[in-house]
UniProtKB/TrEMBL annotation:
InterPro entries associated with the record: LysM (IPR018392), LysM_dom_sf (IPR036779)
Protein name: Phage-like element PBSX protein XkdP
Organism for this UniProt entry: Anaerocolumna chitinilytica
Superkingdom of this protein's organism: Bacteria
Transmembrane annotation, as ranges: none
Positions of the LysM domain: 160-207
Amino acid sequence: MEIWLKQGKEKLRLPVLPSDFEITEAFKNTSVDITNYGEVNLIGKKALATTNISSFFPKQKYNFVAYKDFPTPKECVDLIKSWMDSPVRLIITGTTNMLVTIESFNYSRKDGTGDIYYSMELKQYRIPKLKTKKVSSIDKHTTQIIKPVSSRETKSVKTTTVTVKQGDTLASIAKRTTGSSSNAKAIANQNNLSYPSRLTAGQHIRVMIS
């Protein structure tokens, strides 16, 4: 049996197998008491599997080490610590191949051999699967309907030219041509004149009459 931890291109085979290990798998079931019936068990969703591995990283080449040329204890510790912020793949040949997260990692030296003893708590990692809903977007164009104006609705605008007489003012011309002296300022604007403005006899003033 071999136990591997892998993340990307990096991998570590545990040099000394743990004396024992177990993987716990469970369901999140719920017990409910029903009146006049009793307790029933409602089966829930599958919980994340967990496992604990305890062993040591050898400093020396013991005859029970699983393979030769194993990394140093410090290299093993540093590698596992660098993996703790991302999922790793746990492979136990013949039984297990799953993504896990390293929930905790404890290590210490117990004697003068240089070996580092450790324990790891691992929890299954599931990649979240988000359901996406396709939304079709429909462009809405606002169409402005222009109602044609009939000939009866069309207002005709006429322009007439007034010759200024002695004593005429813009107000008197507006009153005489448009029926209201309040149009005097509009007539001044039409003729590029200031308002009020003094007029000269014989001067020509254009007036727009609707």
